[in-house]
Design brief:
The structure is a single chain. With 528 residues, the chain is an all-alpha fold. The radius of gyration is 24 Å and the shape is globular. The two termini are 38 Å apart.
Length: 528
């Protein structure tokens, strides 16, 4: 075991008590996580006010997530180049400017670019906060403990941000959410200037040897794939030259990326990173997880709004139960996975079981007269399962050697947050559209002039009844198919996986990371 120095935050001025310093950092990271470029909980209001399509807002949201995850691989380079005070001021100022632009523009390309850049600085600010208090959270640098906190923070703030946005849009206007976030970041900047000092605990390292071309190419791959899945239904999928252009762009840039990675010294993602079992297994599992979890984004709000006729606040109140499920899942993972060192196989099995339980419960509760309380258990099961799986799969990357660990985390991040999520929504959304058309024709085929029930309603009323019935039947059918997919995947996983435990999920010291980066820089200068 390496020597663990006592935890301290020397960047604070001396008049700030030691005990509250980590809590100030946590307050900062909550603000960074609350920012998002666009706030999808107000998707309808934004698309109406800005005269944009639903797909435009979704694409901007995914662009922010892609920027957030893709650039994780260079976060330590930024940490060793800029002190904490400069990091907070730069990131907060950039996010403020980004929010001002997004709320005042109707240009789709500009919104995409601003959201992508905002995601990068959101990641930088979040990383600066979390890396500063890592030793406070886990003095032994146990990543299984640290990632429980990370997933609780990230997933929890997604729900809190959604709740805040919905209530802000309901009681005022959706633009006020941007004013709230801008105000919070102004407080972060003022607080940083007052209580932080510019101090370097380690000598400055230059931003030398970063594969900026590789970053640009991988961004193009990710955003092209997301574009296909977000706009596919709008452009009628591969009947459109626009989708074919995006697909060719993704393939060409992917091949170019892999080719460059085979001969340059420090590619953004090394080829051998993709060959590690924990990484490519986690990517496959995330495709299944995102598909099983897609009804929470595609069908749940539609069911509560169209069929159950819940208002906006009632729908928002269900997010509180999702937040409770996230807290329960993170606590359970901390007690069992991080403290008791339960196996990866056990935790993955438990997480998948909760996701399948969510689908089974929803399959049996879908009805036209359902009390709100009946939705609590499936929403809890879904949140618990997703958080357990996220913590387990993220910690599994610690089995990858240190030199490729950060690249693996970045790959898993942009794949799970952007590509897999968009893939799951596209699959379930397309399936739902096809099933609604099919069931509408089947249910409407019995309605004619000789049908006694049809004489009691007008044509418009009959059409509405058929559509609602078709939506309910289609939802139940989708949940049934997803249950079969979840059970099949769970059985395959149980037959294949081994008994790995998170015993060696230990984060290296910053001195080790810094020594590795300096070694890379010396080799690059020697080559010149």
């Amino acid at each position: 075991m390496h020597e663990i120095p006592p935890f301290s935050l020397p960047e604070f001025r001396n008049f700030i008590p030691e005990k509250i310093r980590p809590w100030i950092i946590i307050a900062f990271v909550i603000v960074f996580q609350l920012s998002g470029g666009v706030y999808l909980a107000a998707l309808g209001e934004m698309s109406g006010s800005l005269a944009l399509m639903r797909e435009d807002i979704l694409m901007a949201g995914y662009a922010s997530l892609a920027g957030l995850a893709l650039t994780f691989a260079i976060m330590f380079r930024l940490k060793f180049r800029f002190p904490l005070k400069q990091t907070f001021i730069i990131c907060s100022s950039t996010i403020i400017i980004g929010n001002i632009i997004v709320v005042n523009t109707s240009s789709v390309p500009l919104m995409f670019g601003v959201c992508f850049i905002t995601g990068i600085f959101r990641m930088w600010g979040t990383f600066g906060c979390n890396s500063a208090i890592q030793l406070w959270l886990t003095p032994k640098r146990d990543l299984s403990v640290f990632f429980c906190y990370i997933e609780l923070l990230v997933q929890g703030m997604i729900e809190i941000g959604g709740i805040t946005t919905i209530y802000t849009a309901f009681f005022a206007k959706w633009e006020y959410m941007y004013l709230l976030v801008i105000g919070l970041f102004l407080i972060v900047i003022i607080t940083t200037i007052i209580i932080f000092r510019t101090i370097r605990t380690l000598p400055k390292l230059p931003l030398f040897g970063i594969d900026w071309v590789g970053i640009l190419l991988w961004c193009t791959v990710a955003l092209s794939l997301v574009f296909i899945m977000v706009y596919g239904d709008f452009y009628d999928w591969f009947n459109s030259p626009v989708i074919w252009t995006a697909l060719i762009t993704a393939i060409v840039t992917l091949v170019l990326n892999l080719w460059r990675s085979s001969f340059i010294r420090h590619p953004f993602y090394e080829l051998k990173t993709w060959r590690y079992k924990p990484l490519y297994y986690s990517l496959i599992i995330y495709l299944v997880i995102s598909t099983l979890n897609a009804p929470s984004r595609v069908l749940e709000e539609m069911y509560m709004g169209v069929i159950l006729h819940y208002d906006t606040l009632n729908i928002a109140s269900m997010k509180l139960w999702a937040l409770a499920g996230i807290a329960i899942g993170a606590f359970f993972s901390w007690r069992t996975f991080a403290i008791r060192k339960w196996r990866y196989k056990t935790m993955t099995t438990i997480g998948f079981s909760f996701l399948v339980l969510y689908l089974i419960l929803f399959y049996f509760v879908v009805d036209f007269n359902l009390p709100k309380e009946a939705l609590i258990l499936p929403i809890l099961a879904r949140s618990i399962g997703f958080v357990i799986l996220s913590i387990t799969l993220l910690t599994a990357l610690s089995l990858i050697p240190f030199t490729n660990f950060f690249q693996a985390v970045s790959i898993q991040g942009f794949f799970s947050a952007a590509i897999a999520s968009a893939f799951g929504e596209a699959i379930v959304g397309r399936l739902f559209k096809v099933l609604v058309c099919k069931n509408s024709m089947l249910l409407g085929s019995e309605i004619d002039n000789v049908n006694v029930l049809a004489k009691n309603f007008s044509l418009g009323e009959l059409y509405g009844i058929v559509q609602i019935q078709a939506i309910a039947v289609s939802m139940k059918e989708i949940f049934g198919w997803l249950i079969l997919v979840g059970l099949g995947t769970l059985m395959i996983y149980l037959l294949r996986e081994s008994s790995l435990r998170p015993t060696f999920a230990i984060h290296p010291k910053y001195r080790t990371i810094r020594r590795y980066i300096k070694h890379q820089l010396r080799m690059d200068k020697a080559d010149e």
